[in-house]
Amino acid sequence: MSIGSILNMARSAMNAQQMAIQIASENVSNATTKGYSKQTVDLANSLPVVFPFGSVGTGVTIAGITRARDSLLDQTFRQDSAGASSADAKSGALSQIQSLIGEPSDTGLSTSLDAFWGAWSNLSSNPTNAATKSVVIETGQNVANTLNRFASQLDNLDQNNREAMNVDVNKTNELLNTIAKYNSQIVAAESNGTTANDLRDARDNVLDQLSTIVGGQIIEHPNGSVAVYANGQMLVDDTTVKPIQMNDGQPPTVTYKGSTALIQGFSGTLGAEIEVSTTEIPKVISQLDSLAKGLVTTVNSIHSAGTVFSGSPPVGSPAGNFFDTTASPPAGGDPLLTARGIRVLSTLTTDGIASSGPSATGPGDNNTALALAGLQTGSVSFTSSGGAALATTSFGAFYNSTVGMVATSVQQSQDDSTVQSTLASNADTQRQSVSGVSTDEELVALIQHQHAYQAAARLVTVVSDMADTLINLGR
């Protein structure tokens, strides 16, 4: 073992400790950088020199620089964050539905229905009063207007939700292209056997963002590139990207761009938005449509069977419909047996309001008004737009069941959002415990590496003294 070899060991030690100090400094500098993974210098013994009496070490070498990352924790975090963003988006949409229904409220549908039945009750007490008949028409129009307003607001909510879907689809395509770019850079950078830590951190940040939008499964290849699949359907693999597109319709769908092949099974915000426009909003509109259909058919059935009186002496004649059931609604309009299309007959006047029953002999009869007032508590058969039986109950009870359905969905979604957010937060905490930077630990490491560097520098001084001594012996 020569003095030169000792100097080489001191040099390699100083280089290694200098690199360790540099990495510790980078860790401290990026302690608050989002997505940064703590890096560590891996030190190893250099190959020893073998002598007859044994092996003698030749110092230290840098085996590599690794980043602290646990792929299993990454997978858990992304699954939980996808669930949290999905639950939060769904909860927000359902809360908006509940807000626009706004029950209990002085201006809600429940109040409008009660006023409508109350007006018929008042008319039964004074069946010939024109002012009371006018109130009947007015409250009927209010019921129709309220249902129209609900349907319009739900349509607007659906449109806003679809616009959010478009934004998420465009953002997804952007992130997929970014992942493909990082895949290419990482494969090139790691072709010499090193690890591209900073590029991997940048790609992981993008993968985290993508998971909150579409969820998906991530597979890493041996060459360092990754593939992302949504429910088994490839979105990006290495540098190959398969962009997606939203197709507006009912239900809205997502396909590969330029294709009709459906991509299903998204989670994240996009999955929630698809569910809201496919299931949640149509479910509420369907209930309101059934209510409107029941209202139009039941009220018209009773009213048209009644009698109106005109002239002096009064002559009875069959009454017409109360709500419009024109076979062909206005151009571009919705069917008149729906929440969007329900309306009071435009030609209806107080002279056309029937308070008297079918067999009435004079205008003082109040059987029709009583029958219509009785609908406040009477049972009616409600059916879907396709004719399937839904329930037999009162209008108020059917509407309250709709309100209750929305309230239950909101509560469930909020509970789910709380649970999923907690899971995502816990998963992030676990992940940060592995990859996050502890400034206290890094400062301790800095001191350790500094002392090791000083010791290696001291070794150079010792070797220099040894060399001087040898030189002086030769004089």
Your description of this structure?
The model has no long low-confidence stretch (mean pLDDT 91). The strands form six sheets. The protein has a four-stranded antiparallel β-sheet. The two termini are 23 Å apart. It is built from nine helices and 14 strands. A hairpin with a 2-residue loop joins β6 (226-230) and β7. It has helices at 3-29, 71-101, 109-125, 130-189, 197-214, 268-304, 367-373, 395-435, 439-473, and strands at residues 39-45, 49-51, 54-56, 60-67, 217-220, 226-230, 233-237, 240-241, 244-247, 253-256, 307-310, 315-318, 380-383, 389-393.
Proportion of strand residues: 5-15%
Number of helices: 9
Described by the principal axes of the CA atoms, the overall outline is: rod-shaped
Summing up helix and strand content along with how strands pair, one would put the structural category as: alpha+beta
- What kind of sheet is the major sheet? 4 strands, antiparallel
Mean pLDDT: 91
| Proportion of residues in helical segments | 55-70%
The string of secondary-structure elements, in order, is: HEEEEHHHHEEEEEEHEEHEEHH
Reading side by side through the largest sheet, how are the strands ordered?
Answer: 5-6-7-8
What is the rounded distance between the termini?
23 Å
Radius of gyration from CA coordinates: 38 Å
Number of strands: 14
Low-confidence stretches: none
